[in-house]
Amino acid sequence: MKESTTAVASDQIQQRREHLQLLRQKCDPYSQQVKVTHSVQDVLERYTPLKGEEHSEDRVQIAGRMMALRLHGKAAFGDLVDLSGRVQVYFKLDKLGEEQWGIFELLDLGDVLGIEGSPFRTKRGELTVLVERFQPLAKCLYPLPEKWHGLKDVEVRYRQRYLDLIVNPEVRKIFLLRSRLVSLVRRFLDERNFHEMETPVMTGLVGGAEARPFITHHHALDIDLYLRIATELYLKRLIVGGLERVYEIGRIFRNEGVSTRHNPEFTMLEVYEAYSDYEGMMKLTEDLLVFLSDDLLKTRQVPYQGKTISFEPPFKKLSYAGALMEYGKIELQEIRDFEKAKDIARRLRIPVDGKTHGGQLLDKIFEVVVEPHLVQPTFIIDYPIEISPLAKRKPEDPTLTYRFELFGMHMELANAFSELNDPDDQRQRFLKQLDLREAGDEEAHMMDEDFLRALEFGMPPTGGLGIGIDRLCMLFSDSASIREVVLFPLLKPKKDESLEIEE
To answer: Hey, which end of the chain has fewer CB within 10 Å, N or C?
Structure first.
């Protein structure tokens, strides 16, 4: 079956190439001479009032990709698709003339055309554009996937996203939603007097998260550099400098494995507000998610993979220790004892090796015991200091911090702190992180002396928030995998990058 499919595809490619050569003799098949006066959606909306077989005397100029052709002797109906929609177009020999009809006969499905014509309704009542003149704009040299089966192989879809976007309208909708979501996040923050900033992507040190970085080399300066794993430490420098409300929506790079929720390159929103705290960030997070739900979906009851997540405030709050006890009958103090934590980890089938330290075990036990239960939006608050090296301690219990993570549909959606602004405390925590690095933990924080110096100039009390844009897109587009909302996810290279189409 695969051989015959390949042979058919090869024959079609050869035929399309032949059509291209013949087109070159008649016209420029890659013409720039196109004027567009209407989108498809404009035509559909403006000429809906046409009734019966009524014709409009207006002329419209539209452009798009030809996604269907139905021949009827010396006439043909086609479907022209642009970003806004699909409209039927009607080619007719006695309207076009011999020269244009000769060009029409060399068209193939997938070709990009500019069309000039007049709207009318057919006998069957379908709004159609009668083509009076058209111009090829780009030739599609490969056969498109068959209409009803289409492009299903997810590997091919991700590798050849352009083809995925051509043949799967629902995929286009996902990425338009993503674009809209990012725009709304900016509007939400800008209206609250936050200022968008840009910080370095390549840095001499990395910090702001626990992650293994990617390393590159700058040849002119002969120095190794890291791709950033967070924007946090630079944005907090701006708070020190008096820019009291800042944010960045930026690409983040973490040298880690891939999963349905992790891609080594992803987009993160980070927000910092002077004279705020993690309670302020909690309210900001809640308000943002309500704002996005109301605008994107016109509802706060968001369907996701057969369930519904409600963004109706207020969201549930549960302490880190309380969640461990509620869902696992585990005392936080118990798993702070490394030997007891290892016993519990083994019982939960969590891998433990010689490099595993106490903070990592706390995190993994929580992930296994608690996260599967967190379906509705839930703020987990008051994290242990062992896994919160940048958050301020709680005075009543210095082993806990002013930190929360927001979970929903079993995923972490947001992470926020009352930011640590005591430089001496921060130095001691960095030193402990250095001990972990020396013990083999590649994800532990580096010592950032310049950041400490910035804190020594005085950083006001600050609330900080990080939200993964990709996971928000997953939720609002009902996508099970992060690869569905990242246009070009990282994939292992294949030896054969040829087109694979299911017939």
So the answer is: N
Please tell me the pTM assigned to this model: 0.91
Note the pLDDT of residue 76: 97
Q: Among residues 156, 59, 161, which one has the least CA distance to residue 117? A: 59
- The residue ranges of every structural domain in the chain are 12-144, 166-315+376-484
Within 10 A of 79 (CB to CB), how many other CB atoms are there?
Answer: 17
Which of 7-21, 254-268, 448-462 is most confident? 448-462
Number of CB atoms found within 10 A of residue 401's CB:
26
* Residue 501 binned pLDDT confidence (cut-offs 50, 70, 90): low
Q: Are strands 378-381 and 316-319 parallel, antiparallel or unpaired?
A: parallel
Q: What is the identity of the amino acid at 194?
A: F
How do strand 397-401 and strand 316-319 relate by DSSP bridges? unpaired
DSSP E strands, 83-222: 85-92, 112-121, 127-138, 195-196, 202-203, 215-218
Q: Is CATH 3.40.190.10 the classification given to domain 12-144? A: no
Summarised one tens digit per residue, pLDDT across range 45-85 is 999 999 988 999 999 999 999 999 999 999 999 999 999 99
Of 80, 94, 87, 96, the C-alpha closest to 122 is: 87
d(CA 372, CA 232): 28
Who's near 193: CB < 8 A, 6+ residues apart? 245
Enter the tokens of residue 144: 């498109």
Q: Is the pLDDT of residue 502 over 70?
A: no
Distance between CA atoms of residues 186 and 197, nearest Å: 11
Taking CA 303 as the corner, what is the angle to CA 299 and CA 305, rounded to the nearest 5 degrees? 165
Topology of domain 166-315+376-484, CATH: BirA Bifunctional Protein; domain 2 (3.30.930)
